[in-house]
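TODO from last week: model MFS general substrate transporter.
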Amino acid sequence: MYVNKWATNVAAVFLQICGGLCYTFSLYSPALKEAFGFTQPQLETLGSCLVSGGYFSWIPGLTYDYLRHHHKFGPRLIAAWGCLNHFVGFFMVWAAAKGYVSLPYWVLAAFALLGSSAVVFLDSAAIVTCMRNFPNERGNVGGTLKSFLGVSASLASSIYLGAYQPDGLSFLLFVAVLPLFVAVLTVPLLNHVPYVEQAEITHDHWYLSTGGRFLATYAVAGAIVVYQLITASVSEVYPYSMSQQRGIMIGVILLLFLVLLTPLGSGGLTSRPAPLPAFENSERREEGGEDVESAQLLGNREGKQEGPSRRGPSAEQRYPSSTNLQPAEGEGMPEYTLPQCLVSLNYWMLWSALMVGMGAGFTMLNNLGQMVEALGGRREGQGIYVLLFTTLNTVGRMVGGYVPERLLHARGTPRTIFAVVASLMTCVAALLSAFTSLRWLLACAMMLGFVFGWHWSLMPVLTSELFGLHHFASNHAVMHLAPTVGGFLCSAMLAGNVYDIRGTAHDDPYGTCYGSDCYRLSFLVISGMAALQSVASYWLYVRTREVYNEEFKRLRRFEQEVLGSTET
């Protein structure tokens, strides 16, 4: 007996929100600095440890793939493991800050790293499981779940302001304990359902269809974004009292709980298979291997292949008639193992696109305070810049999930063309940022925030489509290193060193840089990298568009012959 896919999807939403708690460091960092007596470099190093979980993405990825045939135990183990890591890591940092335990600095940093690793465990459990549950809606899966990950820090900020301000250490304890309570409620709901459910093909109204439910999930995320944007903007002019902050906190929590309504009318908590022979056999498809006839289209144009697996007979041989139209994982798309991905040119072209695009976003986000100050503004005034960056980041995640998915279903537009668009937008936004003034910095931050979120939505979906769902967890785990590496190279190495050089040239005794040249060279280099990456992304689009042509034909057959014949 399996749990309904939509109950699993709701559980995944809350796990993503818990994963985003590691990005709330700024809310309790002053309390940690006071408790430990840290210098600023020590505090920043600890903060870096608390957001460096991406380096551990290979652990849940390989583990999930090893357990991929355990449709219940695998996802639940990964999610529970992540919640436990989060609790132990953050709880020990809190206990040390309160003086209950005495830890050397390096041990404290190790616990911070352990806590931050939770985000990749929870992301793997949520994204991979839901992507396998809804293989025909991969863009919507990525867009909705990444959107809630994007708003998680904003939600936590509202809770801090409404219930804990200014007690940062009590809030840190809340951050440590919350995922344990969420795990108790959500982990039992996680499972991969290896067949199509009856609610996916029979429904009374469009809003009860799979697409309608995803739209409702987008609407909840969008409502939270708009609510937070309005309340934050008003607070810039009229500061709220504590009771008003509590009211705002309750309001955003109620909005979040609307996502609990999305499974209504989908058949109850227990999954019900669709009454079609095609769907009954989907589990055997996964066990027996995937059809990879179109994998050769990912090779070079002379017909060389980069080595996708070829196991089992074709879909037509296994399932006659319309049975091959089922949206089972792997059908009609290539299947790559991780070693095959690591020698695939397509894989590294996508990896580099994500590294550059997300590296540009991290550079803007991590340096907004200093950029405002360098261009003549008050560093304390960075709040509105960060707010709008993160808001557009979430909007980009929603648009990057929904628009490519709809165009693929409606017109067969290859999703890889949106990687080209994202690279071009990054190039333009970085170029404008290199020559911006304080007046236009907000527009640059919003543009980079939007394309930053766009990349986050594209990453899991393109990885699953171009390299398959069968080994998706491990393939996505290595792909997940791209934003981490990009942030380090572009923000820490490039922008940090250029800023220090320009600060020295300005003869400031504290090394502070003032002027439009503080970040100009950094963003010019990033713009040049993005321009080159646009060419590489276009090449990736050319090499893979035939794969999407075949996928579009399969989607149309499924929608016309299966969904069209079963709608009521």
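Done. The mean pLDDT is 84.
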